[in-house]
Design goal:
- The complex is a heterodimer of chains A (607) and B (88).
- By secondary structure, chain A is mostly helical.
- Chain A has a domain at 4-258 and 286-328 and 420-491: Sodium/glucose cotransporter (Up-down Bundle).
- Chain A has helices at 4-9, 11-34, 39-60, 66-71, 78-89, 92-105, 110-134, 139-146, 150-183, 187-202, 206-237, 242-259, 276-293, 297-300, 309-327, 330-344, 353-357, 361-367, 382-392, 408-416, 421-459, 465-488, 494-518, 524-546, 562-579, 585-594; strands spanning 372-374, 377-378, 402-404.
- The longest helix of chain A has 39 residues, at 421-459.
- The radius of gyration of chain A is 25 Å and the shape is globular.
- Chain B has three helices and two strands.
- Chain B has helices at 7-37, 39-42, 52-82, and strands spanning 46-47, 50-51.
- In chain B, strands 1-2 form a two-stranded antiparallel sheet.
- The radius of gyration of chain B is 18 Å and the shape is elongated.
- The relative contact order of chain B is 0.15.
- Classes of the chains: A mainly alpha (607), B mainly alpha (88).
- At the A-B interface, helix 7, helix 12, helix 13 and helix 15 of A face helix 1, strand 1, strand 2 and helix 3 of B.
């Protein structure tokens, strides 16, 4: 990778070989399993081999150039930037939790599927090409230049930090959970193993290393996500196209819901919003997630790395296509799992040990690790189920007495389909790739804001290149260790925090970014007031409804807090801008130049 | 070398870009929100097992978003080429 041009012109061959190598590796492990190598060894090989490959890419991509470190030298082709963005975007939550959420909540959870994809239209149309033309290294960099000075930059950094840090805690926790569940390592040690995996990918080569690692991680995660459900679909329907075949399974679920006594009173899988409040929440969440997507700095900064504005636009399309491949498969996972539970588990006799032992084996496998509960107790074995149900006087398993943790759906599919352990190991490697790649991107977003915006722009603008890169790396390690240390305390409600990041980013950053490009009259004072007001209102609603006992406004759940903050931010920016003198002629020319793709970037950086 | 636009040309370039922006966002709005208002009515229609309302939220809108992003990239590029401000 020392010769950059050779590398970028051979990308297809390199990643083609890599993909073939990975498939070969999976087949090799499958053979090893058949000749009797224990499951645990297979799991270790999977995790350490994949992390080793990512580390190798990270080391080969080391760099001492500022523009390579911050924006991968701006030579990542659209297609590969799309893959890297998809990996950057899809976290442990997308990989593991989304199918589980769909399983549990059915139609209403599709707001996540819609929100996390449609946001990319906003990225492509409103923001990414213009920030690429502007030539920023970070999102606060744009705010600082467009809104004249360090005050706007500092607010941008603060919002970025609030959104990204909670998000990275979620990823590190996810890494720890996956590693501890599959490898049997202690959670706290697993967190630091994950941390090493994250650091070797990002520290030496910054954005350049993260980019090429994320492409490799995308390939692993998408293969790992598709394989189990494709096989399951082939088994159950005869056609290996789960995304098309699950329609017939939806019909069977509806039939079971209508006829099976054990399902009486259960919420229908496809139940649509039943009243105004439910509908308002459904649409408010879609809007907040979409606008949040278009404001999260770790996503936006991926589009700074393309060779041109045109490529930046195209690359949003590729990113969305690669994300789509996973997101349109998630409902298939949920549907197949739902059918398995409705068909083969609910309605089971619980009166005798022998009857309980007839339950599918995976119920007990996951009952053992606290993920499946029957009659309110972990389904450790038939005896435990029998005692719990006898205590409650339950003789037939109905929907109210069966619960499955939402992480389990994707993880358990290999066992539901009766596949060998190697497929479960593959899923673990995929989940790990999803968590690590997102953590890499977030870590870089935070550390770059600190090293580029705080240190270089605000503290020491005369710092030499070498010094800037040293500072960047030190800050990267500091942030990473801090995040891992906080994650090992397992702070409660991490999932809530991650969900909050979308509303906070949406209300805090989106209006300032969009109006900065699309309305020349936006003034420094207007943008600053808007950011503070939008972020403030959202934060107030989040904290007061969760901890302050405040009533919900119009029944809107606090995950969609941005629905109040976003309009406030737009309105305040607009009014304050009109009350203050118009931006200078230079600033207006600057905005004009940003709107035209050709010509040099506006913030040319000396190498 | 980049072509310098006269202020009038720059104005027209931006007007067309804005028009494209509104077109694209209208399609986005319809498939993000409007169509899902009618989920119950759409669910009456069933295609290869999929109630249409469910299908639109789980796949249909997503496919539209992907196509829309690529279409937008092409259309904006044609505008830039018409004004001679596309990159080489």
């Amino acid at each position: 990778m020392s010769n950059g041009r050779d590398f970028t012109s051979n990308l297809g061959r390199i990643y083609g070989t890599y993909t073939g190598g990975f498939i070969g590796f999976v087949i090799l492990l499958a053979v090893l399993e058949q000749v009797g190598v224990p499951d645990r060894i297979i799991g270790y090989l999977f995790v350490f081999f994949t992390i080793g490959v990512y580390a190798l890419i990270g080391i080969l991509s080391r760099t001492m150039q500022v523009s390579e470190y911050y924006v991968a030298g701006r030579k990542v082709p659209a297609l590969y930037n799309g893959m890297a963005t998809a990996a950057d975007w899809m976290s442990a939550a997308s990989f593991i939790a989304m199918a589980g959420g769909l399983y549990a909540q059915g139609y209403s959870y599709l707001s996540f599927v819609l929100g996390w994809t449609g946001g990319y239209v906003l990225v492509a149309v409103l923001i990414a090409p213009y920030l690429r033309k502007f030539g920023a290294y970070t999102v606060p960099d744009f705010l600082g230049s467009r809104y004249g000075g360090n005050f706007a930059r500092s607010i941008g950094i603060l919002i970025l930090f609030c959104c990204s840090f909670s998000y990275i805690l979620g990823q590190i926790t996810g890494t720890g959970i996956i590693a501890s569940r599959f490898l049997g390592i202690d959670f706290n040690i697993a967190v630091f193993v994950g941390l090493v995996g994250i650091l070797v990918c990002s520290m030496l080569g910054g954005m350049r290393a993260v980019t090429w690692t994320q492409v490799a991680q995308y390939i692993v995660l998408i293969i790992a996500y598709l394989v189990p459900v494709v096989i399951l679909s082939a088994q159950q329907t005869g056609v290996p196209l789960p995304q098309l075949m699950y329609g017939s399974v939806l019909q069977e679920i509806q039939n079971l819901e209508a006829t099976k006594p054990a399902l009486e009173g259960a919420k229908a899988f496809m139940q649509t919003p039943q009243n105004g409040t439910e509908a308002a929440n459904f649409f408010a969440l879609i809007l907040c997630l979409m606008i949040g997507t278009a404001s999260l700095p770790h996503v936006l900064m991926r589009f700074f790395t393309t060779p041109s504005v045109r490529e930046a636009r195209r690359s949003v399309g590729w990113a969305l296509l690669f994300i789509f491949l996973l997101y349109f498969t998630a409902p298939a996972y949920a549907t197949f799992a739902k059918f398995e539970v409705y068909e083969n588990i609910l309605g089971a006799e619980l009166g005798t040990l022998a009857a309980i032992q007839e339950l599918p084996r995976w119920v007990f496998i996951y009952g053992n690790i606290d993920l499946v509960k029957i009659c309110g107790a972990n389904a450790v074995d038939a005896q435990a189920v029998l005692s719990a149900c006898q205590a409650k006087g339950v003789t037939m398993l109905d929907h109210a007495n069966f619960s499955i943790a939402s992480d389990t759906v994707v993880i358990a599919t290999p066992e539901i389909a009766g596949l060998p352990y190697v497929i479960a190991g593959l899923v673990a490697a995929g989940g790990l790739a999803a968590a690590l790649s997102t953590a890499d991107g977030l870590l870089l977003a935070i550390a770059n804001a600190l090293s580029h915006d705080v240190y270089y722009r605000m503290i020491d603008p005369k710092a030499s290149t070498a010094r800037r890169l040293v500072v960047a790396r030190i800050l990267l390690i500091v942030v990473a260790v801090l995040a891992a240390a906080v994650a090992t305390t397992r702070p409660g409600g991490i999932l809530a925090l991650v969900a909050w990041a979308f509303s906070l980013a949406a209300a805090g950053l989106f209006p300032a970014l969009v109006m900065g490009v699309w309305w020349k009259r936006t003034t420094k004072e207007g943008a600053i007031a808007g950011m503070i007001a939008g972020f403030g209102v959202t934060l107030f609603y989040l904290i007061m409804t969760r901890y302050g006992g405040m009533e919900l406004w119009f029944g809107i759940a606090n995950i969609s807090a941005g629905i109040f903050g976003i309009p406030v931010a737009f309105l305040v920016t607009w009014i304050v801008s009109l009350m203050t003198p118009a931006p200078s002629k230079e600033m207006q020319d600057f905005v004009d130049a940003m709107r035209i793709p050709s010509g040099a970037t506006l913030m040319e950086e000396k190498a | 070398m980049a072509k310098q636009l006269t202020p009038e040309e720059a104005e027209r370039h931006w007007a067309r870009s804005k028009g494209l922006m509104w077109t694209t966002l209208s399609v986005w709005f319809v498939f993000s929100f409007v169509i899902h208002f009618f989920v119950d009515a759409l669910n009456e229609i069933v295609i290869i097992g999929f109630p249409l309302g469910w299908y639109m939220a789980a796949q249909g809108s997503l496919i539209v978003f992907v196509i829309l992003c690529f279409w937008f990239a092409g259309a904006q590029n044609r505008i830039d080429e018409d004004f001679g401000v596309a990159e080489d």
